[in-house]
Amino acid sequence: MTPRRGRAARRALVGLVAVAATAVGLAWPAQATVTATYTVWTWNVAGWAIHRGSVTDALVPTISSSIQDSGAQLVALNEVCEDQYRALVASLRAAGWPDDPTDFARFEPHGPDYCGGQAFGVAIFSRAPLGAANRYVLSSDGTPEGRRLLCALLASRPHLRF
Predict the structure, then answer these.
(1) From residue 30, how far is each of 22, 35, 79, 157, 159 by CA, in Å?
(2) Handedness of CA 60, 61, 66, 72 (dihedral sign)
(3) 60 HSE (CA, 13 A, CB side)
(4) For the segment 122-140, what is each residue's pLDDT rounded down to a tens digit?
(5) pTM for this one?
(6) β-strands 148-154, 118-126: how paired?
(7) Which residue, 34, 47, 93, 125, could crosslink 80 as a Cys pair with Cβ 3.0–4.6 Å?
(8) At residue 12, does pLDDT exceed 60?
(9) 51 and 26, same structural domain?
């Protein structure tokens, strides 16, 4: 093949590929790209180790104020006692923090008695309403409590899980 024919063949092949790619691209339905940014606030509370499960010390008001002041849309707490979780739900509700005060929080216990007889675990809170939650038991890390992972979908965007 002469250089001139080789260039012409390459141009024809490139043109054919470009036309095919364009035709295939036009045949696919257009998909909207949605980008969203979320502010996340997280804290390892040490609800029993430091606060002994208390709901009357400064822990709950401090967490509640910090969440509100931060502009967070998602909150995750580790090592929180169930009574502290309940007190925080009440505090955030009273402050008007969640958009829907009936469906914005989830709790998953690691164990039933690590907080002086009450449940101890992880919690998530969302400014927007939450949907169904998934709860997973994690592999042992060598500690006596069973570790858990808690996820919940965002009701308005069910493909998104916090």
Answers:
(1) 13, 16, 45, 20, 19
(2) positive
(3) 21
(4) 999 999 898 888 887 888 8
(5) 0.73
(6) unpaired
(7) 47
(8) no
(9) no
